[in-house]
Specification:
alpha/beta, Rossmann fold, six-stranded mixed sheet, two-stranded parallel sheet, 8 strands, binds S-adenosylmethionine
């Protein structure tokens, strides 16, 4: 059954505007933590020369993603894969870009570690890793609303929480990525664009 996330409807176009000039013209784009699937179908409609591979560990999310793709009769969205970013082995051996929106603060830190290690394994040189979400910068929240969100996340699960941009960038550097391009997004979110060296 199709799910609808109001935030995804609001942020999908600003994210697409950042992605469009930064994705390759052709190739396979893997999305980690596709959630409802509203992002990936929006990107796939706008970028028909790319093939999109959604994924999520949640069966309910995968059903929603597949329903969205089928109802829009998109020929460039593959069936959603069961993929836990923290796993040592992913069910896909290569992709030209990896996208992940709003996952690393709503999952244990091991998911972020696994995401970056997995992206490093499957991306070629110059492949793009795109992350979207809220981050702390220089050890501080960038807005009171992000601080309140962080407290709420940690109350819900002590392993969750808004991550430090510098820690994520160091992790990526250790896994063979360059420094991220950082783009301010609406509602105090950031886009981080890493290139595989
Ligand atoms: C807040 S939702 C974000 C969904 C979508 N990307 C968006 O921005 O609307 C977080 C998603 O992360 C997924 N998730 C949680 N832990 C994960 C993990 N270890 N690996 C991959 N996905 C995970 C959840 O199943 C959920 O769909």
């Amino acid at each position: 059954m199709k799910r609808q996330a109001p935030a995804a409807a609001r942020n999908r176009q600003p994210i697409l505007d950042v992605l469009t000039p930064r994705l390759p013209a052709r190739g396979l784009v893997l999305e980690i933590a596709s959630g409802s699937g509203e992002h990936i179908v929006h990107f796939a409609e706008a970028l028909p020369d790319l093939v999109f591979q959604p994924s999520d560990p949640s069966p309910e999310a995968r059903a929603s993603i597949d329903d969205w793709a089928q109802s829009l009769t998109l020929g460039n969205v593959r069936p959603a894969l069961a993929l836990d970013a923290a796993a040592d082995l992913w069910p896909l051996e290569c992709a030209n870009a990896v996208l992940c929106c709003n996952m690393i603060h709503i999952a244990p830190w091991e998911a972020a570690v696994g995401l970056i290690a997995g992206a490093s394994r499957i991306l070629p040189k110059d492949g793009t890793l795109y992350l979207y979400g809220p981050y702390r910068r220089g050890g501080r929240h960038t807005a009171p609303s992000n601080e309140a969100f962080d407290l709420d996340l940690r109350r819900r699960n002590p392993a969750w929480g808004v991550r430090d941009l510098e820690t994520v960038a160091s992790l990526a550097e250790a896994q063979g990525f360059g420094l991220p391009e950082i783009i301010d997004m609406p509602a105090n979110n950031l886009s981080l664009v890493f290139k595989r060296l």
